[in-house]
Amino acid sequence: MLGAPVEHGIASWYGVPYHGRRASNGEIYDMYKMTAAHRTLPFNTIVRVTNITNGKHVDVRITDRGPFVEDRIIDLSLAAAREIDMVGAGTARVMVEILAGSPPITAGAFSVQIGAFAERTNAERVRNQLGPKYSPIFIQDYDSPSGHLFRVRVGSVPSEGAAQQLASKLQTETGFQTFVVRLDDAPVSAPRGAGELR
Q1: Domain boundaries, the chain
Q2: CATH class of the domain comprising 109-197
Q3: pTM surpassing 0.70?
Q4: From CA 135, how far away is CA 156, in angstroms rounded?
Q5: Who contacts 116 (Cβ-Cβ below 8 Å, separation ≥6)?
Q6: Domain 5-100 is of which CATH architecture?
Q7: pLDDT tens profile 87-128
Q8: Model confidence pLDDT, tens digit, residues 12-56
């Protein structure tokens, strides 16, 4: 059953060099399959993405985390982007609707990502700076196509709404660009991340 619109915003797409690399849910990313990356929807959620400009839509399965770029809400595979004619432009204004999903969309734990650093010492500096006021705060390291990175994440809260409030507070108080991310039980390997800092 088609749900109410979840989000309106900007979609982007990704292909090489991520093709053939492990996605956040542990699968090997195939840019020719109908998949997508989303920061908070559970893995295996099926969503319909409609290009608002031309009315074309595509149904995709969430297998990855991202996009970590301000104002973007979903990252489509190359194949999915072709279906809604957005490859050339690179981005499109879209509507995202949930078609099916398990577990429940609102279940789970959420955190706020405040940066991804190439140098662990920089990630530790941010963690130590914010640690007295925000807890828990932790560093996750992973290999990305652009090199080894260290993500700094704050909090583990039971709802996306509470995480959004924390993200707003962090952005206001620290000036960091923040992203709410679902904390997954699946092994995390190499989600794409813009906003990668040194």
Answers
A1: 5-100, 109-197
A2: alpha beta
A3: yes
A4: 9
A5: 68, 144, 149, 150, 151, 152, 193, 195, 196, 197
A6: Beta Barrel (2.40)
A7: 999 999 999 999 987 555 666 889 999 988 999 999 999 999
A8: 999 988 899 888 888 999 999 999 999 999 999 999 999 999 999
